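TODO from last week: model histidine kinase.
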Amino acid sequence: MNNLLEVMQLSKGIVFKYFFIFLSVITIVEILVMIFLYFFNLNSVWIEAPLDAFLLSLFSYPILVFSAIKPFFKEMNNSLMQELNLRTKELKNSSKKLEFHQNYLQDIIDAIPNIMIVTDGHNIVKVNRTMLKFTGFDTLQAFKQKHECICEFFIEENSCLMPFMEGLMWLDYILSKPANIHEVSMMHNDKVHRFIIQAKTLDFDETNHSVVTFTDVTEIEGIKKQLNSSNKILLENEEKFRAITNSALDAIIMLDNRGKLIFWNPKAKDMLGYEEEEIMGKDFHKIVAPKAFHEASKVAYEKFARTGEGAVLGQILELSAIKKGGHEFPISLILSGVQIDGEWHSIGFMRDITERNKLQGEIKQKDEIMLAQSRQAAMGDMISMIAHQWRQPITAISMGAQNLQVDIEMGDIDPGRFDTKLAKIVELTTFLSKTIDDFRDFLKPNKKPDTQMLSTIVKGTLSIVEKSLENNNIILKQSLEDDIEITTFSNEVIQVCINIINNAKDIIKIKEMDNGTISLKISHDEETATFEICDNAGGIPEDILLRIFEPYFSTKEEKGGTGLGLYMSKMIVQGHLKGILDVYNSEEGACFLISVPLKHDEEKSDD
C-alpha cells in the first residue's frame, strides 16, 4: 500500500515539474525577444505582427497541451484512487486479522497455568494473566511501575536461583546451563511456592527475546518431603548396616492405577536386571513378585486403585522379589500413594537386604557368643556367691559334727541334745540343697515365657545376691508397691537384676564405703513392670554415662571387668524381653531402670 502511494506522488510530481519547466522556457524566450526589439528599436509592423502571432501561439500551446493531457491525468488519478481504496480495504482486513490472531495468541498464553514472560534480557515485554495474578497486579504497566524484574520476588532457599548466579543475571545463567534443572522459590499469599524455570531464546527475529516459563511444583515438593520422611524411617531402622553398605540410594518405582510400571530409577534397573523395554508399561507384580503372591497382590492393588487406601501403606515390609533370570532375593519395601489426574498411583522404595540379612546372622551369632561369655562370667560370680552362702552353713555343720564326735568320745551322750544338733545339721544341709536348686533354676534357659508373681522374681534375685551383700556389709533395701502377675522370661529378668546389683556392689567395694546401700524398687502400670535399682556410690561420670552399654567397655578392667555385663543386660532387655534398659544419676548415685511388658508378645521374641 505504501508503494502505491509513492508511485502516485512520483507520477504527479514528474508531470507538473516538466510542465512548469516548459512555461518557464516560454517566458524566458518572450523576455529575450522583447529585449532584442528594445535594443534594436525594431517596431515595424512587419515585425510586430508576426512576433505577436508567434508569442500568442507560444503562450497558447501549453494551454492547448494541458487541455489535451488533462483527461489522461484525470483517468490516471481515478485509477490510482481506485487502487488506493482497494489496497486500503485489504490493509484494514489484514489489520483486523492480525489483531484477531494477536488476541487469540494472548488468550492461549493467558490460559496456560504456568507463569510466562517474554523479555529481552533487561525489560519484560509480555506476560500472561497467571504472572499478573501471582504478583498481584492487573496490568504489565502497573507491575513495571513498582518492579523492574520478576526476580525481585525470588526467595533464598537451598538449590534455588537468586537474581545473580555465578556472576550472571539469572536468565543468562539459565540459558548458559540448558541441561540443568533450575528451581526458584517465590512467596504468594504468605505461602512459599517452588517453581521449575525453563527459558528459550526466540530464533525467528533479531530482537534477542526469550520466553521464560515458571512451572509450580509446590505440591510435588510436598510429596517428595513425605517420601523422604518415609525413607528416613527406613534408613533409621537400618543404621547399623549403613556403614557397611555405605549407600543411601534406593530403587524407586512408580506404578499407575493398573499396577503397570511407569517410572523407575537406575538403581531399580540395576537391582532387577531388566532393560526398560522389557518391563516398562507392564504388570510389575507379575514380573517381580513371587508367583505365590500374585493373586493377593492383585486384590490389594485393585482396592488401593479404587480408594487410595491399603494396609501396607507407610509400613516397612520385608518381602522377596525376583530379578531377571529367576533369582529370588530379599528386599525391604515402603509404599506411598499419590493421586495424579484423579487416579491413584503408588510409589515404592526398594532395597536389597541380602547383605543386611547376612550381616544380621553374623551379628546374631556374635551376640550368642558374647551371651555365652556373659553367662560364663555370671557363673563365675555365682560360684563366688555360692562359696559365700555355703561358708557359714558348712562351718556350722562341721562344728556340730565335731561337737557330736567329742560328746561320743567322752561318753556324754544326751539323746535330746543329739536330736537338736542333728536337726540343725539337717536344716543347714536343706538350705545348701535349696541354694543349689536356686542356682540351677537360674542357669536353666527359658524357651518360653513363664507367668510369675513380681514378688517371686524379687525373691529369686535376693536368694542369690543377699548373702554376698551381707558378707560385704552392704544394705539391700527392697520395695514392692503391690504384687501382680507378669508373663515374661523370669530368669532373664533375674539375670539382669543380678548383673546390675553386682556392679553396684563392686563400685561400693572399690570405694571402700562403710554405709554402702543398694535399693530395689518394683512398680507397675497397666502394661509395664519397672525394676529400679539404685546405689549410693556417687554416680557415673558424665563423660562415660553414654558409653556404659557398649560391648567391652568397662571401668573395672584392673579388677577383671569384661565390659560385657551391662551390654548383654541391654541386649537381653531390649532384644529378648522387648523392654527398655536405661540409666541416670540421682543425688546419691547411679539408678538403672528396667521396664518390661507385663504380657510378653511371643511373636516379637525371635530377635
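Done. The domain at 112-216 is CATH 3.30.450.20 (Beta-Lactamase).
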